[in-house]
Design a protein that fits this description.
Keywords: Transferase. The chain is α+β, with helices and mostly antiparallel strands and about 210 residues long. The protein is built from eight helices and four strands.
């Protein structure tokens, strides 16, 4: 194992990066954390802005490849470790639906969530990236009704992405706690990888708060 084989994960606890770390654990991937204290504003410092000009996490580096954007990171990592069985192969009929639901997260779910969080009037349906909020969630509910995972009986990296997302969005009331969503999130959050990272995040976040006088 050389240093170039390891994944560098730029990370802050209890953020979107948590799901990426859970995925790395599920994949059995070798990785190193580069932790940013966002409470101290380290994500806005020049050293990190040189890595990601938007000052966001997660970011991964693998050899010469630097990957930003959560959905791209999930696709990249799952493809990098196919032996873990969390990604359909290129010639697998499930590959298209798999990519669809990963892309749906970034292109439809997050824009809808931000509008809801900001209490903004959404764009007209004809101009909205997600149609309308109820339709956006309805598509997910319909897909999960075929469950237990997005691709039926087969768990993929897409489920790590969505299971973690449903967990925190239901916690904050952005997504209604419907039985189908709660049961789906539980399938992911009850797994050992999620439990390990959640415990680690809580400890790390407390350290960051203490360092900032919180």
């Amino acid at each position: 194992m050389t240093s170039n084989d390891r994944i560098a994960l730029y990370y802050s606890p209890q953020t979107r990066a948590t799901g990426t770390r859970v995925l790395l654990e599920e994949l059995g991937a070798p990785y190193d954390l580069h932790v940013l204290n966002m409470k101290a504003g380290e994500q806005r410092q020049p050293a990190y802005l040189a890595i990601n000009l938007l000052g966001k996490v997660p970011v991964i580096r693998h050899g010469e490849a630097l990957v930003t954007e959560q959905v791209a990171i999930y696709i990249y990592l799952a493809d990098l470790f196919p032996g873990a069985g969390l990604t359909p192969a290129l010639d697998d009929p499930c590959r298209g639906p798999y990519l669809r639901w990963i892309a749906y997260y970034g292109s439809s779910f997050e824009p809808a969530l931000i509008d809801k969080f900001m209490k903004r009037e959404p764009a007209p349906v004809s101009h909205s990236p997600y149609s309308d909020y109820d339709s956006m969630l309805g598509a997910l509910e319909a897909q999960l009704s075929r469950g237990p995972y997005l691709l039926g009986e087969r768990m993929t990296a897409a489920d790590i992405l969505w299971g973690v997302a449903f967990s925190w969005t239901m916690m904050f009331g952005f997504v209604p706690r419907k039985d189908i969503f709660a049961a789906y999130a539980e399938r992911i959050t009850s797994r050992p990888a999620f439990q390990r990272i959640t415990a680690s995040d809580a400890e790390m976040a407390a350290q960051h708060a203490a360092a900032c006088g919180g």
